[in-house]
Amino acid sequence: VLQELALDYPLPKVILEYRGMAKLKSTYTDKLPKMIDPNTGRVHTSYSQAVAVTGRLASSDPNLQNIPVRTAEGRRIREAFVAPAGSCIVSADYSQIELRIMAHLSQDEGLLKAFAAGEDIHRATAAEIFGVERDAVSSEQRRYAKVINFGLIYGMSAFGLAQNLNIERSAAASYIERYFARYPGVREYMDSTRAQAKAQGYVETYFGRRLWVPEINSPNGMRRAGAERAAINAPMQGTAADLIKLAMIAVQGWLEKEKLQSKLIMQVHDELVLEVPETELSLVKERLPQLMQGVAKLDVPLLAEVGAGANWEAAH
Prior knowledge:
Blueprint: H1 2-5, H2 10-29, E1 46-48, E2 58-60, H3 72-79, E3 87-94, H4 97-106, H5 109-116, H6 121-130, H7 139-153, H8 158-165, H9 169-182, H10 184-200, E4 202-204, E5 210-212, H11 221-257, E6 263-268, E7 271-277, H12 281-293, E8 304-309
Helix pairs in contact: 4-10, 4-11, 6-7, 6-9, 8-9, 9-10, 11-12
C-alpha cells in the first residue's frame, strides 16, 4: 500500500526510504564489523545446499547474497568488501541465465533465434509486443519488456504485472497475450510443465534433478496457484543453480591445476567472486568467462560477463 501511495504523496516515500536505510543499518553496517574474524580480518559466510527447494546455495551468518544492489545505499555496502594490497576483486556473472534456460527448455523459435543472434532480448521482446522495429523501441518499451520477460518466468499474473508497471490490468493482460502470441513455445512449455507437475508431483532441471512440488494438487486454491508458479520457475532457477555449481567446480579445478594464488571467495546465485593478485588479473579475466560458459551445451549460448576493481562494487 505504501508503495502505491508513494507514487503520489511525499510522506509514504520518505517512510519507505527510512525503512530501507534502517534495514541496511541493522543488518549490515551495525552487524558486519562485529562478525569480522579476529584471526583473518575477514567476514566468513556459511553456505547451505539443502535450504532452497531449487538447489540454490543459501548464504547465512551473514547473508551476503541478499545485499540490495538496486539502490545507491545498498551498493555502498558492497564497497566495504575490499581486496588486500596488490590484489583485486573479480566478479563474473551469467547474463540473463534464466531467460536463456527458458529459451532452451521451451525450444521457442523466436527466443532461440534472438539469443543465437546475440540480440538484446528485452529490445527484441519489446519489438514483438509493441509491433515496432527493433531500432525504434523506446527505453520505456524496453523497460516494460524486461519486466514481462522476467515476470512471466516467475509466473506473474496480469494483476501482478499491472501493479509492477503501474498500468491498467487490461493493458497488462494484453501485453501478456501478445507475448505468448509471439513466443508460443513458452506458453506450450509452461502448460506442459504444469501438467507434468500435477501428474508426477515434480519437475526437473536440464540435468534431470527432480524438484518436488508438494502443493501442486492442493485443494486450497492459493496454495495450488503458488505451487503452479513454482513449478514453472523451478526448472529454470534449478538449472541455473546446477550451472553455477558446475562453474564453481570448473573454476576451482583450474585454479588448482595452474597453481594460481587467486581464490574463489564467494558465490551470489549467478555470480562468482574471486580475490585475484594483480599479476594474475589478465589471465583470470580471460579464462573465467570461458570456464563458466563451457560447463554445459545448451541450444543458446551461455554468456558470462566479468569485471574487476579494488572492491566488490567496483568489480561490477
